[in-house]
Design a protein that fits this description.
Blueprint lengths: L1 H30 L4 E16 L5 E15 L37 H29 L3 E9 L4 H4 L7 E5 L2 E2 L3 H9 L5 E8 L2 E9 L2 E3 L5 E3 L3 E6 L3 H28 L10 H14 L1 H20 L6 H14 L5 H30 L1
Helix pairs in contact: 1-2, 1-6, 1-7, 2-5, 2-7, 2-8, 5-7, 6-7, 6-9
Length: 363
Amino acid sequence: MTTVLTIVVAVLVFGAVVLIHEWGHFQAARRCGVHVVEFSIGFGPAIWQHEGKDGTLYSVRLLPLGGYNAMSGLGDDADAESQTPVKKPKGAPVLPDLIRGKTYPEATVGQRFFIIASGALMNFVLGFLLLIVLVCTQDAITSKIIYGFSDGALSQQTGLQPEDEIVAVNGHYCFTANDIVYELQRTPNYTADFTVVRDGKITSVPNVQFSTNTDENGNTTMVLDFTVYGIAKSPKAVVRAAFNNFMYYARVILRSFLDLATGRVGLNELSGPVGIVTVIGEAVSYGLADVLSIAALIAVNVGVFNLLPIPGLDGCKLLFLAIEGISGHAVPEKVQGAINAVGMILLLLLMVFVTFQDVTRFV
């Protein structure tokens, strides 16, 4: 039963993230007057199709690894955003547009930028809404104000005090209590520099030390020896907490990619679809709150990842459009095609690698 529930939840989560992403592209294209030939969820052979009154073919395809919008002027089978549009006259309005049924190449640079960026933006909207629901399920909202310390707390002995509101750890602003934990986990020598609000003033508290604990396997971890206040829920507090959690997720994801690029973490620590489904299964066993948290993290992750300037992703296409907008000249189609093709090949190889890694790790 748990396995079936895990599969159902995983399909719903992945399906929602892909659907909202492609729906963002689709609605932006329609808003800009660009005709979408096909709106597809998945790749490969079609298992369901329906032609709408708007002339768009709606499809569900066999391989649930993403989706695409095939837009007029770019070919029925092409991912519309991967092609190079022709240059348009300057001064044309971005929104609203009075011309309907035009091709994607006929759209202005600003309109094409809006179309491509809207997929990731809708992922962010989904993640934010899921976080609002998550906060609403909690008994209270966790603050960043220290409530008390455990007996003999080393952090209190080395500078922190009750009622301190933690603003930053090691120079990194903390949006939530989870931010505090995240920064402390990255702290070398179990010593951190804090910035707090104390008696209404910003105060620096350097070299705060923490005790450690060593388990039977010899693994040493930092002991978090203080607790923080809870905040009563109100509409304003819920929205603010959801926003702060969104910022926490987004920054952790960005720093994780940076850690990967700089070698702080290795490829062996990446997870693919199999690993993510395993995590979803664990979340299902814990309850709704954990499922919402994982779903929000995946939604934000997809949005952030798509905006990175990596060949084959929306971020690289946005970079090409930015160059076109600034210089007035589009990057040659052959150059864009070659860069995106290499990027897609590398991404597919990475997907195969992490999937194999997940299978050997979890199966």
